[in-house]
Amino acid sequence: MEIRIEHLNYIYGLGTSYEKKALDDISLTIRSGEFIGIIGHTGSGKSTLIQHLNGLNRASSGQIFVDGKKIYEDGYPMRQLRFRVGLVFQYPEYQIFETTVLKDICFGPKNQGLSEEEAGGRARAAMRMVGLDESYENKSPFELSGGQKRRVAIAGILAMNPEVLVLDEPTAGLDPKGRDDILGVLKQLHQESGITVVLVSHSMEDVADYASRIIVLDKGKVLYDDIPARVFSHVEELESIGLAAPQVTYVMRALRRMGWDVSQDVTTQAEA
Ligand code: ADP
């Protein structure tokens, strides 16, 4: 699934005295199978942007093409788009309400109209994808740790079989181990299922290790959209918009993973 955004603008409170332009002429394309990190300071427009990807928010102007079809055209199957692009909100565990893990994960697929049995099959597959074994099925979600609850919430979205998984600050509020756990789950999920992953974060380090492309937002605009190594080379610009550059070790790791020789000039390798 390809999502192409063209000249997207979004204004909160249009026509009121609270008018606020949250997205300013955004154009970008999300291709099938990518792992994209979207970073930016608080208020840069990250959440607003991703809420456009599944039609939850409707642009003030501009267009989004999904596999070449305009989504803001009469008759576009918006309900299906909601399922095709799975959105994991910030602190998704607050939306867990069922008495067992399995029931909670079944909620989405049942809402899609699947039978109890089909939904159960989807839910079990989703649990495996996030590394929760069968022993969790009948546990109360409320007994779990923060990181495990978050896995349950992600599984609840995966059970709807999305083609794109979008996560808003999935590591917020977790301790370093919980953070590494969740990011590890996403990395493995991406590698094994080939699902497109869009990860929103205000932390460079979260995305440095996993994304193959980074989009930097500032005041509702795309400031950079490039491979991590090139984005990280703009150290001063990133600091000036409130993003601490990742530690050198992170950058080095990202480069080595891409098979680059870090003893050589990286910019020439980027061009190659
Ligand atoms: P981020 O996710 O990067 O923190 P947001 O997309 O939440 O940024 O916000 C972008 C801008 O839109 C900010 O200036 C924010 O204050 C404003 N904004 C967000 N939500 C609303 C809303 N519901 N009503 C009015 N303004 C909003």
UniProtKB/TrEMBL annotation:
Q: Which NCBIfam families match?
A: ECF_ATPase_2 (TIGR04521), PRK13637.1 (NF010158)
Keyword terms, alphabetized: ATP-binding, Cell membrane, Membrane, Nucleotide-binding, Translocase, Transport
Entry GO terms, CC: ATP-binding cassette (ABC) transporter complex
Q: In what residue span(s) does the ABC transporter domain sit? A: 3-244
The protein's matches in InterPro entries, at most eight in alphabetical order, are given as: AAA+_ATPase, ABC_transporter-like_ATP-bd, ABC_transporter-like_CS, ABC_transpr_CbiO/EcfA_su, ECF_ABC_transporter_ATP-bd, EcfA2, P-loop_NTPase
Under the subunit heading, UniProt states: Forms a stable energy-coupling factor (ECF) transporter complex composed of 2 membrane-embedded substrate-binding proteins (S component), 2 ATP-binding proteins (A component) and 2 transmembrane proteins (T component).
Q: What is the lineage of its organism?
A: Bacteria, Bacillati, Bacillota, Clostridia, Lachnospirales
Q: What class of enzyme is it?
A: translocase
Q: Sorted alphabetically, which SMART domains does this protein's record hold?
A: AAA
Keyword Translocase applies? yes
Q: Which organism is it from?
A: Porcincola intestinalis
Q: Where in the cell is it found?
A: Cell membrane
Role according to the record: ATP-binding (A) component of a common energy-coupling factor (ECF) ABC-transporter complex.
Q: What is its EC number?
A: 7.-.-.-
Its record classes its membrane topology as:
Peripheral membrane protein
Q: Matching Gene3D superfamilies, A to Z?
A: P-loop containing nucleotide triphosphate hydrolases
- Please identify the protein, giving its name as recorded: Energy-coupling factor transporter ATP-binding protein EcfA2
Q: Of which family is this protein a member?
A: Belongs to the ABC transporter superfamily. Energy-coupling factor EcfA family.
Q: Which domain of life is it from?
A: Bacteria
